[in-house]
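pasting for the record
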Amino acid sequence: MSEVLTVSAPADLADRDAAILDFEDSWFNSTVPKEQAIMEHFALSSARYYQHLNLLIDTPEALAYKPLLVKRLRRIRAQRQAARSAQRLHG
């Protein structure tokens, strides 16, 4: 018996949030700069996009939708925060 496995956005994950995660997972395939693609797809500045993305990756819905992406983004964020903290401590 073969089962069809489909990945869809969890009921609590808004369509736009799912689109942001999908975009973040595949933006590198785009021929335009990421900032331009963000503006074209979401009508957001890069700063607003990253603010929303950082809030989004802390939600269990995002983790359920794209676990590998969310874990990678959380790890990168933690590494950057640690680097900034170390830089402040060491001058």
